[in-house]
Amino acid sequence: MNAKCFPEIGTDQLHRVLDNRDLGTPDTVMIRVGQNILKRRVNVDCVVSELCLLVKKVNVKFPQSKLY
After folding, report:
1. Which end of the chain is more exposed for a tag (fewer CB within 10 A), N or C?
2. Number of compact structural domains in the chain
3. Which of 12, 4, 8 shows the shortest CA–CA distance to 50?
4. Is residue 51 assigned to a domain?
């Protein structure tokens, strides 16, 4: 198993990682973001919108992967 983790990274930075790094062809991708943003009481709709964009990007980049 080969895992790549990006702790403490924001969604904007994660978009850049997805755009600019060769992450191979993973069987599984797990997205876990937003907890720190929600703790600061940022607009929930904004967080959900950012997460949706991230999910779409992951689905395009890794269409064969299971996404969690």
Report:
1. N
2. 1
3. 12
4. yes
